[in-house]
Structures
1.
Amino acid sequence: MVGEEGAFVLGWDEVLTEEELSMTLKVLCMSEEEFKEYKEQDGWEDDSEEEENSTLSNEALSRLKAPCKKLLYDSVLLTLESYGADLKAEQDLLNNKEAYEKLSRREQQALHVRYGQKRILHQLLELVQ
């Protein structure tokens, strides 16, 4: 369901891998009985038109059902824990000109990428609280 990378791609305004995330949330939030029924009815193909017409914008994410929100929230927390430093530490480093300039160009670029990723993840946390 998730693809080769095993990750979802989030942007500032919407989920960029919305089909994968929608299907994953749908399946993971089903009871065992619902899943069996869904699978028996070839539900995978029946929902393709419905899935194409819905986008997982930030507004749509904030309206997800409670179990899906909790699943996303917990997943984001686990992802944030995998980073070495929190958002505030990254921001402090970006704002500290002396410390920032001591970093190599590659380290500076990595810092900007991590900081952006963490900001998007924190935004998602707020949307699904």
Note: Residues 49-53 have pLDDT under 50 and may be disordered.
2.
Amino acid sequence: PINHPDFAQSYNNIGIVYYNIGEYSKALSFHEKALGIQETTLPKNHPSLAISYNNTGKVYKNMGEYSKALSFYEKVLGIQGKTLPASHPDLAESYNNLGSLYHNMEEYSKALSYFQRALDIRNVSLPPNHPHLKTTKEWIEIVKQKL
């Protein structure tokens, strides 16, 4: 049926392609179609829903619509906070996304807080030479210089 979660996955995949080529309005359209299906067919804390919220948040962030992006990123964090262990790398990625968003919004103290949370998780969940550790540390230094 047209409202099957597999259709949502396909819509998400198409949205990702449009995002990657910079066609944000088209990406948003497909992510919204995916969410329309998922929000009616999946439990509120389903991981696929978190992925779709994250994809939509990324599009809004790149469109400069930060308040909308924030709303979606907070939904992701809400789901992951309930469904993932506190040291899960996906949770660190969500904190990192929020840090980056707050950096773009020039709310540097909030950005620093989220980047630090991401780093704390990554320090325990990733090997010491993982590139995400380096990137998060670099972001922390950038934000500290702006405070």
Note: The helical segments are 5-20, 24-41, 47-62, 66-83, 89-104, 108-125, 131-146.
3.
Amino acid sequence: KGEGHVEGEKVESPDTGLYYDEYLRQVIDVLETDKHFREKLQTADIEEIKSGKLSRELDLVSHHVRTRLDELKRQEVARLRMLIKAKMDSVQDTGIDHQALLKQFEHLNHQNPDTFEPKDLDMLIKAVSARYK
């Protein structure tokens, strides 16, 4: 049946195939709750987004949005740590370089696992952009 979308209904976007797809979606959803950032996102062209110019707008979002982004990042870091631990448990190799494992996750700044900063948004955008080049 060709039922139309109800005003304000969220349209589910297709799966990106990225292992951090859920994190990406959640970050976008939270950022879009901030009116200023949503307006900047809607008027930005693809080059502004890829260049990191849009990431600098993160400093202007509300405290509530930043707090929610910080929580999302902590959850994603915990998820990645579980993946690393599972990989380590399966390999049982004591010579694993934990920093090298973390560096393979280029969609967030692993050196700052507690707060979501403009660098995190920039890294997330660049990781997604690199995937679709």
Note: Residues 1-11 have pLDDT under 50 and may be disordered.
